[in-house]
Write a structure and sequence with these properties.
CATH class of the largest domain in chain B: Alpha Beta
CATH topology of the largest domain in chain A: Rossmann fold
Strand content of chain A: 15-25%
CATH topology of the largest domain in chain B: Alpha-Beta Plaits
Number of helices of chain B: 5
Radius of gyration of chain B: 16 Å
Radius of gyration of chain A: 23 Å
Helix content of chain A: 25-40%
Oligomer: heterodimer
Distance between the termini of chain B: 16 Å
Number of helices of chain A: 11
Strand order of the largest sheet of chain A: 4-3-5-6-7-8-9-13
Distance between the termini of chain A: 35 Å
Number of strands of chain B: 8
Shape of chain A: globular
Largest interface: A-B, 18 and 21 residues
CATH superfamily of the largest domain in chain B: ACT domain
Structural class of chain A: alpha/beta
Number of domains of chain A: 2
CATH architecture of the largest domain in chain B: 2-Layer Sandwich
Largest sheet of chain B: 4 strands, antiparallel
Chain lengths: ~425, ~140
């Protein structure tokens, strides 16, 4: 059973040793963070001038929270803690408005991330004998590359196909006898719905496991996918601010996601009062990375809601288990695994003069996949009476939205005054998708 | 030049009714119309007897609409005449953006409405009339 752990010593570390390690790493992280203009300013105000000012883990409470807006304001280099020459990779993600956020990684940061991903994969019982098909997007999105390097380090046969092109995905699954797949739950259901169309019966596939994440889903959806494919489904959690996938992952017992507490300090807070909550109480996940040196983030408010499971896991890993993500504290939308803020869409629409100020964002299901429809009103005064103007306008809105939110929306042009007038942007979003 | 009323409308039930209701309340007579369709929306183009009144009435109700100068040509209804008209426009570098037509007296007379680029500068009326076409103004149109 030795192969069942990737790093047995750290994965089964006892509480006292874990806390010692966490304290040491937190001091180092604070010391690193003090090199950034953003944290230097902020930590000094909190009376923290060096890592040594952190005397116990309780001192974590003295550190102010970091938010997505902080990252946005610090873009591009406000939170960079090392010389740019030390940086070997960057990942950016969309901010809540037009400004993106960026995370820098040193070689060692990537190495630590990859180690965590190896732990995750091994925890599900997968080995180097497995064939791993990665259907998550590669590139600036962390979902693809994150799992990729872990799977390679473990020695799995990796198929780095990336997202989309379902026909090719299924063909690859068949031809190379894929045993482990990494996908969003809705894409997994989409693949299932296409098997008939592509005339590849399930018994010609060799799939055993699926790692599903990037969008919330229920236990029922897990069971449904497990029954459809006759496989085991493991829940995965991560966010680009905390590297990406590999923060929390389920082991073979599938009873919550072990969060690697030697690399992340995990807190659950009441999002309104910011008071720390105890186990089994749902609140906002707050994470501090303990091992990242290029972009150390302290007490980062993820806006994801979940709780920590009580008790020990049968796998003997001592790292606490996070529940499924039950929701968000903000209005972020998750569309086919891609995070989109309504404000990003609004920003694009508002800078196009030919459209009015009223708009609506509709989310619907197209089969098992999400589709986003952006409805805008024509601005009467700038209508020229030429239909080609409208064609160009529609294409322009589509192109600019795609650049801002990565996914391609369906753009609809509407008559002035025809869309429901609503106050507050949340009401401009009509989400009629059935929950997974 | 006579003007055509171009209106942005969504392609959904009731839109044509709304437009025509406003026009009928203003006692506007529709002489001809066409719709350029794009699936979920389109541009309705109307030749009416009182374009300014119609434009104001629709704009007042919030419609995105505009009056566009067009060329309205009366053609003898017999084979080859539209071809003759198109050839003349081509010869004088007038690009047809959109056009629609209707027969007003079968076997005798048809009307061709042309949205074009270049017609406003060229002395096209004289050229067309020299070739036997009748170019209509607002007054002639309202009397059709």
């Amino acid at each position: 059973m030795e192969a069942y752990y990737w790093n047995k010593e750290l994965e089964t570390i006892d509480q006292a040793s874990l806390e010692d390690l966490q304290l040491k790493l937190l001091r180092d992280t604070v010391q690193a963070a003090l090199k950034t203009p953003f944290y230097r300013n902020r930590l000094k105000k909190a009376g923290i001038n060096s890592g040594d000012d952190i005397r116990s883990l309780q001192d974590l409470q003295r550190i102010p929270f970091t938010t997505k807006d902080d990252l946005r304001e610090g873009y591009p280099t406000g939170l960079l803690a090392v010389d740019l020459a030390e940086v070997v990779r960057i990942h950016t993600s969309s901010g809540t408005t037009g400004t993106p956020t960026v995370i820098y990684h040193t070689k060692e940061d990537l190495d630590n991330w990859t180690e965590l991903v190896c732990r995750c994969i091994v925890a599900t019982g997968a080995t180097r004998e497995d064939v791993f098909q990665n259907t998550m997007s590669y590139g600036l999105f962390t979902g693809g590359l994150g799992l990729h390097y872990g799977a390679e380090r473990l020695g799995m046969t990796v198929i780095p196909v990336g997202s989309g092109n379902t026909r090719r995905q299924i063909q690859l699954m068949k031809d190379f006898k894929t045993t482990v797949i990494h996908a969003t739950p809705s894409y997994m259901l989409h693949i299932y719905s296409k098997l008939n169309e592509f005339k590849i019966p399930l018994n010609e596939l060799f799939l055993k496991k699926a790692y599903l994440g990037a969008e919330p889903y229920s236990e029922n959806t897990r069971r449904k996918i497990e029954e459809f494919f006759h496989i085991d489904v493991y829940n995965s959690y991560g966010l680009s601010e905390m590297n990406g996938p590999g923060v929390s992952f389920e082991c073979i017992h599938k009873c919550g996601m072990h969060t690697w507490e030697d690399s992340y300090l995990l807190e659950i807070i009441d999002p309104k009062t910011t008071r720390t909550l105890s186990e089994e109480h749902e609140g906002e996940i707050v994470l501090t990375n303990l091992r990242r040196r290029a972009t150390p983030l302290l007490r980062y408010r993820t806006r994801d809601l979940a709780f920590i499971h009580k008790g020990k896991c049968k796998c003997k890993r001592t790292h606490r288990r996070l529940s499924r993500i039950t929701g968000r504290t903000d209005d972020m939308l998750i569309i086919n695994g891609v995070n989109v803020y309504p404000s990003q869409i609004e920003e694009v629409i508002m800078r196009i003069p030919q459209v009015g100020t009223n708009y609506q964002i509709c989310l619907e299901k197209d089969g098992t996949l999400d589709k986003i429809i952006v409805k805008v009103e024509i601005y009467s005064k700038l209508f020229t009476g030429d239909i080609r103007q409208l064609d160009t306008l529609k294409a322009k809105i589509n192109e600019e939205l795609r650049a801002a939110i990565i996914i391609s929306p369906i753009v609809e042009l509407h008559e002035p005054g025809s869309l429901p007038v609503s106050e507050g942007k949340a009401k401009r979003v009509v989400d009629s998708r059935t929950k997974l | 030049m006579p003007r055509q009323l171009n209106i942005f409308i969504e392609n959904r039930p009731g839109r044509l009714k709304s437009v025509t209701e406003i026009l009928s309340q203003g006692n506007i007579n529709i002489i001809a119309f066409t719709i350029q369709d794009r699936g979920d929306f389109g541009v309705m183009k109307l030749l009416v007897d009182k374009p300014d009144v119609a434009h104001l009435a629709l704009a007042d109700k919030g419609f995105a609409c505009v009056l566009k100068d067009i060329l309205v040509v009366s053609i003898q209804d017999k084979p080859g005449n539209l071809n003759k008209l198109a050839s003349l426009l081509l010869k004088h570098n007038i690009n047809i953006i959109d056009t629609h037509g209707f027969v007003i007296e079968p076997g005798n007379r048809g009307i061709c409405c042309i949205e074009s680029a270049g017609a406003e500068n060229a002395n096209i009326t004289k050229i067309l009339e020299k070739e036997g076409f009748e170019v209509l103004g607002d007054k002639e149109i309202s009397e059709l």
